[in-house]
Amino acid sequence: MSKSARTPDVLVIGAGAAGLACARDLLTAGLDVEVVEASDGVGGRMRTDRVDGFVVDRGFQVFNTSYPQVKRRLALRGLRPVPFTPGVLVHAADRGTLRFGDPSRRPGTLPGLLTGRLAGPRDLAALGVLSARTALGPAAALKRAPERTTRTALADAGFSEAFVERFFRPFLSGVFLEDGLETSSRFFHLVWRSMLRGTLCLPAEGIGAVPLALADALPPGTVRLETPVAALTEDGAVTEDGREVAAPTVVVATGWGPAARLLPGLPVPDGRTVTTYYHVAPRPPLREPTLLVDERRRFLNTCVLSEVVAGFAPRGSALVATSVLGTDTEGRQRTVLDALAEAYHADTGGWDLLTVRTVPDALPAMAPPQPLSRTSRFGPGRHVCGDHRATGSVQGALASGARAAREILRDRR
Ligand SMILES: Cc1cc2nc3c(=O)[nH]c(=O)nc-3n(C[C@H](O)[C@H](O)[C@H](O)COP(=O)(O)OP(=O)(O)OC[C@H]3O[C@@H](n4cnc5c(N)ncnc54)[C@H](O)[C@@H]3O)c2cc1C
């Protein structure tokens, strides 16, 4: 077994958002840090590929500008974020396509919400109370609020079953990656707050630009790619090619699956799987940068990506991203194309499937009780961070990395 020449103060395993944030905070505090990453690039679940001239994220995701950790760490302008239209379109089973707009930003969308269309007066009143309570109060109060499933919280907030089924359930399925509204109400309230306070957008170069910007803030040579860690040792870790990396402190920032193997006994959540179909259409089926969800939940959400960022598709074609829960099972592509034909009122017969991205552990399950932040300490000199230790989001991953750095610095004092 060979030994690494360098002995950093801290070895961070995994260069996703959490590992990169942790490394950055430790370096800023003056520690020597090395990050080892199994794959050929930084970003983990936030990576972008180029496929035949199209820009394709490894699973469709959106970027929210209001996340506190995002604002703290990233120069947003450098990412050239391009916004979605506020709100979403809902393809309703029996009433065509309805717009759920945010009337505070687009007053013209209010009539679409009114009685007989998407929401009744009771739902509008409940929406006003929910939005005021989540957007205006301190986030700390939401984190301490009584915890239930999101379904129970919505019923308790006075929403009608019809509105929950027509709007919240299809919309939130794409956020939680589960379609039973079983996710913790605390997470739901934080998500709702971030949507009201921020803007959903995509970086002009794809979601992968976010971790690339985080990595750019590290000194050159901090991250070593294509270096999978096989096991932790008493003195640090050993890589799959048999090299020992000694370090007094090790941070496992690998996502929960690999973390459970490296840290036996670590409690880990179930994972949510999502598949995104990327289709190329000869022309955009909708000329708007917006999310479209399906009341019947044949897909989680769809959007014409090239209407959000024109550069995602070569001139003369349109790129459509459509996500579904679970994997790409047999016959699913046909069902999805049929549902898209209905939702977009388009002939999808001439669409070509560009690529399919399935992400097995895309998000951790977050059923109540759901501690929104867990300690990184696992044992002497051993820490763990990632979205599974906070919330399943970029905010959660970054905050968990930041917490690990704080706890390491405290332990060294
Ligand atoms: C399809 C999809 C849609 C999403 N949508 C949203 C959204 O709209 N909004 C939002 O806020 N969040 C969203 N998320 C969640 C968000 O992307 C994640 O919460 C976040 O990226 C997790 O970061 P992480 O650092 O905790 O873990 P990861 O990104 O999983 O990083 C772990 C890293 O560790 C590396 N690694 C693993 N094992 C080893 C090993 N043995 N040795 C060395 N390295 C190892 C991996 O290669 C990876 O780079 C979405 C995620 C997906 C996949």
From TrEMBL:
GO terms for molecular function: oxidoreductase activity. Pfam families: Amino_oxidase. It comes from the Bacteria. This is NAD(P)/FAD-dependent oxidoreductase. Residues 18-409 form the Amine oxidase domain. The keyword Oxidoreductase applies. Its EC number is 1.-.-.-. InterPro entries: Amino_oxidase, FAD/NAD-bd_sf. The keyword Oxidoreductase applies. Keywords: Oxidoreductase. Transmembrane segments: none annotated.
